[in-house]
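Reopening this ticket.

The earlier resolution said the output was attached, but the attachment link was broken on my side. Pasting everything inline this time so it's all in one place.
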Amino acid sequence: MQTNWASTSGASSAVDLRDRVHRPTVERHMASADANAVTGTPMFFINGKRHHGPYDDMALLTGIEEVAHTQGQERPGRPLPYAAA
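Inline output:
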């Protein structure tokens, strides 16, 4: 069985791949990654700053809450899920 890579990868057609229709978008994404010193995936940024630490939902939520707290945007009565290490 032969698989049509273009259709399974989300590209609109093999012609788009051949004609490099998506090249400008890919180049913008690559430039953004370079500007932000992205070295691999996944890599998360919270409010423009790189998140260092685990990538589980609680760690990311805590990172977001901490940024909101330091910027005076916390929601009253809502404690941080856990203290970051």
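Reporter confirms the inline version is readable. The chain has two domains: 1-35, 40-85. The mean pLDDT is 77.
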